[in-house]
Specification:
By secondary structure, the protein is α+β, with helices and mostly antiparallel strands. The protein has a single domain, classed as endopeptidase fold (from Nostoc punctiforme) (Alpha-Beta Complex), CATH 3.90.1720. 28% of the residues lie in helices and 30% in strands. The chain is built from four helices and six strands, in the order ααααββββββ.
Length: 105
């Protein structure tokens, strides 16, 4: 929900609520479980907010990016040359150009 929260702050659109993901959890672990149980495509979150797909090479600060972790796409936030992703142990930073997808906010 890290990227969905960042998206909401930037656009005012709560994509997680629009897709029925809000209110199904009380903590970070619960949010992760809710996303695992959800049968939707994670890329629906930025698309439901009307974001435009862009090349990861053109992703800028604040843009939403997706990277595969453990066989599943996870959404993160571009910080420039690196992107931040929330994990159970905190934030993980990876090079933005290694992401699979990006959306312009």
């Amino acid at each position: 929900m890290f990227a969905a929260d960042a998206l909401q702050v930037q656009t005012g659109h709560d994509a997680a609520a629009a897709l029925g993901l809000r209110g199904r959890y009380k903590c970070a672990r619960g949010a992760a479980n809710a996303l695992r149980r959800w049968q939707g495509d994670i890329t629906q979150i930025p698309l439901s907010a009307g974001l435009t797909p862009t090349s990861v090479w053109h992703a800028g600060r604040g843009h939403i990016v997706a990277h595969p972790f453990a066989g599943r796409l996870a959404l993160g936030v571009c910080l420039g040359t690196d992107a931040a992703f929330a994990t159970a142990t905190g934030l993980v930073f990876i090079p933005t150009f290694t992401c699979a997808h990006a959306w312009r906010v």
